[in-house]
């Protein structure tokens, strides 16, 4: 793993109302799948204050806040990256710090802080009527369907066409799991659990939920954060591994909102880009795997099958998406943790949920399941590794489609590890990650960088539109494209 040097100086910061002492209290909670409000707040009865806090590197462990150093100026100046061509940021201890030249003021007196935590997630249709507009929002995202610049004017029309044609099949999937996605309910439960975990550590915070493609949208959450006059914000994507199509897409939206708002641009923000290496997360995953292995008659003979959401190969090879590298390292760390517990099962990784005619990360989940069955594997434990909440890709794609395929291919004993959800050790680790990130928050600039300034030339735009439309028409209605498009919709 490459080690990238990080620059910038952190000012000594006093966070009024925050006490980063370690709490021996073990927070226990569970998801009840009941709807809760998008914004949940937590207020401690104590007005506590702390200063001179150095967070532990997120990439190494989930050390308790009590083990932190005594001076923010003593932060490690290293961060771990495999590739970083997606965005320009400074980072320290695994947390993004926006590089805009704006320093956090150093105060000689305690400043009363209103801390916010923004949980980012994908979102999902809550009813069958929501499916088509949800799909439109998904495919209208240029980070999901990456069109060449000449054809970007086709993004929304193409998204409309795909969403209308795919909606019937998608509705069948959502109908099979109860008529809608449970993702919002579960994420609301996780927000409430995180609020309570922070409260148990004497942290007063508001926790918000921002979905990328359905309600409550990220924009709605940001508006509420502004109305609540939050003074320090930690952004926590609920994706363990970073990808352009998940965390990257949400961060792009945040950048757009913040840089065009004078108030928000001055708000200190820390973004936890990925947290797949955290000790608490790794141990929580190992706990669930070990527990499910015990349900088999011969646990040592079970193949551990990690199934991750796929991304197009071009994201990794052309755009420098670190997702594949992070996924492989994450699985290595989980298996190493299992080995310390005497569990040394065979394991494999495959990628699911591919769509369209382009090449996605291999091997594919469906193909590997068939191959394992043909090779004589009789017991298999599926582990949805890139998901921390149950949704259609776990409840329908894995539990129904892949289970049926596995049993049909000769696998006799099937098991599936549940998503982390509100597992207490997982939520506690997220709370520690938030606490470690708080002193690293930096303000964002309202001014666009040179590379972000759009130079509009009406004549050039018209020429692109005219010839792009002709070329797009020819491509879309060619026999080869029609055949590829049918495969995309299947």
TrEMBL record:
It comes from the Eukaryota. GO terms for biological process: heme biosynthetic process. Its EC number is 4.98.1.1. GO terms for cellular component: chloroplast; mitochondrion. Gene3D superfamilies: 3.40.50.1400. SUPFAM superfamilies: Chelatase. The keyword Repeat does not apply. CDD domains: Ferrochelatase_C, Ferrochelatase_N. Keywords: Chloroplast, Heme biosynthesis, Iron, Lyase, Plastid, Porphyrin biosynthesis. Pfam families: Ferrochelatase. InterPro entries: Ferrochelatase, Ferrochelatase_AS, Ferrochelatase_C, Ferrochelatase_N. It is found in: Plastid, Chloroplast. It catalyses: heme b + 2 H(+) = protoporphyrin IX + Fe(2+). GO terms for molecular function: ferrochelatase activity. Pathway: Porphyrin-containing compound metabolism; protoheme biosynthesis; protoheme from protoporphyrin-IX: step 1/1. Its main location: plastid. Catalyzes the ferrous insertion into protoporphyrin IX. Belongs to the ferrochelatase family. This is Ferrochelatase. It comes from Morus notabilis.
